[in-house]
């Protein structure tokens, strides 16, 4: 399924989880997400990471809704606890089953998202590794002058923001040098139009998710 359709599907199922109080729906969502991730062959390390990061929010939700609610409903506490993992595994489908470039390219081609916005987002994301290296360089430069820069040091962020502005200007000049014009019609290097099969799968999954939400 195209990343854009997958993104919309995950968003709709997320809305269902938010408005439907159903332990069955939460467990089904977790199982379906795990099955999809298994088919995509993500590593065991990522499964463990997803399980670990949900422990504290899930335990906290169970404790809060069981002990602090007026009726002390154990079922409701389990619904809220499993909802945490349902959202985590649902989000992991977007995070682990395609790259950010594939997702943004699909949003631009299939949902007609503004190309300038898409290229701007991709440009900013490509700067993140460079920004990480630059922060390490700034910290090392500070140590050479006897100044210890931490995450609470304003000097660290001022220098990083200044470097980001310089990179942003360089990126703009490079885009215009390659013929980019804001608002102009653009062609795609590797265009893959939506297939009828993908659209059918999308609506079938939407109908199944609605039917699952209606089951009590």
TrEMBL record:
<keyword id="KW-0812">Transmembrane</keyword>
<protein>
    <submittedName>
        <fullName>Cobalt ABC transporter permease</fullName>
    </submittedName>
</protein>
<feature type="transmembrane region" description="Helical">
    <location>
        <begin position="46"/>
        <end position="63"/>
    </location>
</feature>
<feature type="transmembrane region" description="Helical">
    <location>
        <begin position="6"/>
        <end position="39"/>
    </location>
</feature>
<feature type="transmembrane region" description="Helical">
    <location>
        <begin position="75"/>
        <end position="96"/>
    </location>
</feature>
<keyword id="KW-0472">Membrane</keyword>
<feature type="transmembrane region" description="Helical">
    <location>
        <begin position="199"/>
        <end position="215"/>
    </location>
</feature>
<dbReference type="InterPro" id="IPR003339">
    <property type="entry name" value="ABC/ECF_trnsptr_transmembrane"/>
</dbReference>
<keyword id="KW-1133">Transmembrane helix</keyword>
């Amino acid at each position: 399924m195209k990343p854009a359709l997958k993104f919309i599907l995950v968003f709709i199922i997320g809305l269902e989880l938010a408005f439907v109080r159903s332990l069955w729906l939460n467990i089904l969502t977790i199982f379906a997400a795990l099955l999809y991730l298994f088919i995509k062959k993500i590593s065991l390390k990522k499964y463990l990471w997803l399980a670990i990061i949900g422990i504290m929010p899930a335990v906290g939700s169970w404790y809060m809704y069981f002990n602090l609610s007026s009726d002390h409903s154990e079922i409701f506490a389990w619904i809220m606890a499993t909802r945490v993992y349902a959202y985590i595994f649902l989000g992991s489908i977007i995070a682990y089953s395609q790259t950010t470039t594939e997702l943004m390219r699909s949003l631009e081609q299939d949902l007609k998202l503004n190309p300038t916005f898409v290229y701007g987002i991709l440009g900013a994301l490509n700067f993140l590794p460079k920004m990480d290296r630059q922060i390490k360089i700034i910290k090392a430069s500070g140590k050479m002058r006897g100044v210890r820069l931490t995450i609470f040091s304003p000097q660290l962020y001022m220098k990083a923001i200044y470097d980001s502005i310089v990179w942003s200007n360089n990126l703009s000049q490079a885009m215009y040098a390659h013929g980019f014009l804001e608002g102009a019609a653009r062609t795609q290097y590797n265009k893959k139009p939506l297939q009828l099969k993908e659209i059918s799968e999308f609506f079938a999954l939407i109908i199944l998710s609605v039917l699952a939400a209606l089951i009590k």
